Amino acid sequence: MRNPTATKLLFEMSCAGRGTQVFPESDVPEVSGLAAIGAEFLATEPLPLPEIAEPDVVRHFVNLSTLNMSVDSHFYPLGSCTMKYNPKRHERWARLPQAAGSHPYQSEAQIQGLLSVLYELQGMLAEIAGLPGVSLHPAAGAQGEFTALLTAAAYFRDRGEQRTRVLFPASAHGTNPASAALAGFECVQLAGGRDGFVDLDELRAQLDERTAVFMVTNPNTLGLFERDIRQVSELLHSVGGLVYIDGANMNAILGRTRPGDFGGDMMHYNVHKTFTGPHGAGGPGAGPIAVRDFLAPYLPAPVVTWDAARNWYSLSVPEKSIGKVRTFFGNVGILLRGYFYIRTLGGRGLREASENAVLNANYLLSQVKDFLDVPHGDRCMHEFVASARRQKEQTGVTTMDIAKRLLDYGFHAPTVYFPLVVEEALMMEPTETESLQTLNAFAAALRAICSEPADLVRGAPHTTAVCRPDEVNAARKPVLCWSAPEC
Ligand SMILES: Cc1ncc(COP(=O)(O)O)c(C=O)c1O
User: Fold this and answer.
1) What is the pLDDT of residues 149-189, one digit of tens each?
2) Which residues surround ligand 1 with Cβ inside 6 Å?
3) Is the pLDDT of residue 485 over 70?
4) Which of 10, 53, 233, 296 has its CA 20 to 30 A from that of 384?
5) Which residues contact 426 (CB under 8 A, 6 or more apart)?
6) Are residues 387 and 408 in the same domain?
């Protein structure tokens, strides 16, 4: 049975006189008189705070923390958003006092060790991308997109070119057009081929001297490697445009192929998806970018440089830098986690991680395709998109119902209703760390749900503290300030 201290508010558990705070005697002179503080700042009534014993407070918060699903407590096959398991040793290392105890206002001389690590990380990210210029600055994938587009805009401006349009396929992540619009470009969406790939004829028809950038996720958000990516890049380059590779799905291709090798000019990494780092609540994250050599002079400042003669690391401003897109030199705590992850696995380990991510996704696909439609083929990269369209037509059970019912089985739902090009989409990404047993259990749960009575599934979840919150209202009208309940 669920513990009542988890679901009751502290106010509901309050009992007059039960407060446990014991303040020590004041050891500073008391300042008396309203003049010292100002009458307007003095409370006239005691604050209506809950009065609760310490064990009850502890139990309340500990139990509350167990109501949420996390990658440390449950299988979390969130497609595209990649909920990778974060190995604890990287968390521990990132908290070492040499790293966590440093401060961005310290002098270069005091943080040579840290700068050497960041310099090395820049090199590793350049190597993995096949693109030599790296900025560790951006705070998330989306900010990486925005930063790279500002970099491209500065490059075109410098060349006196008026390029105003950014193109992307319909399967693009919403942050792509958002970043392009924020960077001042006109957004042009391509429909894309029916088979889920970029349609070369459609792309060709849109290209002209106004084209600045084509943003493409590869592997794309349908879990497919864009088979014509080389031709896509050649087409863009033939009109003087640039190719932006949204690297959110790098987890599928690490050590196998590189954006720079298949024609990409710029890309971002999502450190939490491809390497390791906490994910959620919009950050704080890290979304380093990698660019071709001719774009490197425009990167944000600072970048870490090394003077071999002096063996000295510096924070330097690239020659034609676009300036800063955030404070200081990046979200160092997250970058370090990524650094430790790469160092732990090494080149071969990264490649194996990708191979296992792809293997796991293909195995899961093979286990669900007889009861869920998988519109884009029998093979995938690290994720695939299934559809509950048939279930909806036949029984009225929607993707959302299936997602909610999975909670009753102890699984977090896959990504739902994305990408928009697939009706009733369920986008599944198991990641490389999941075992055969977990994948089998998840597939069995999905299979069971698809044959359960429709009413049972439509009423789910039945076992969680909250059933179906009004998600739209919660997102649009969040209540962010505490106010005392009216008793
Ligand atoms: C394909 C794709 N691009 C970009 C992003 C944005 O990344 P971030 O959440 O780090 O801003 C995501 C996030 O899920 C994504 O899946």
Assistant:
1) 999 999 999 999 999 999 999 989 999 999 999 999 999 99
2) 80-81, 140-142, 173, 175, 217, 221, 246, 248, 270, 285, 287
3) no
4) 233
5) 372, 385, 386, 387, 388, 399, 402, 403, 413, 414, 415, 416
6) yes
